[in-house]
Amino acid sequence: MIELASSTVTEIFTAFGKLGVSAEDVAKDAAEQARAYMHSSAAVGEHLADQLLLPLALAGGGSFSAVSLNMHAKTNMEVIRQFLPVSFQVAEGEGHNRISVSAGEPRYIC
User: Which residue among 8, 34, 40, 96 is least packed, with the fewest CB closer than 10 Å?
Assistant: First the structure.
């Protein structure tokens, strides 16, 4: 585990050992994740990004920048859209992705 803390956010990068994978390679995986975050202009890493989607949707909107969006985040967006009247916009920037959440028309699911 690698923890990077600043005045506004704490990011934790984790890599898990696997049978047949050396401890050095596991540590290298976590270090590469942390390095990518530190060299980006993003506010959050890819694993925190998917955790921020629902609170912003419930709040009715907001935005943040993330290193990248993984498949989990993209799936979360689709699921959230099924239950809440929100839309997501993703814009690629230099060294990050800007994710915006905006309120839309209410939908009724029966």
Answer: 8
Choosing from 39, 47, 72, 96, which is the catalytic residue? 72
Are 101 and 61 in contact, with CB atoms under 8 Å apart? yes
- Give the start-to-end residue ranges of the domains of the chain: 2-38, 46-103
72 has catalytic annotation: yes
Q: Which residues contact 67 (CB under 8 A, 6 or more apart)?
A: 36, 37, 40, 42, 44, 45, 46, 49, 96, 97
Q: Which two tokens stand for residue 105?
A: 């028309």
Q: Tens of pLDDT along 21-72?
A: 999 999 999 999 999 999 998 999 988 999 999 999 999 999 999 998 999 9
Give the residue among 68, 57, 54 at the shortest CA–CA distance from 97.
68
Please state the pTM of the whole predicted model.
0.79
Structure-token pair, residue 107: 């939908």
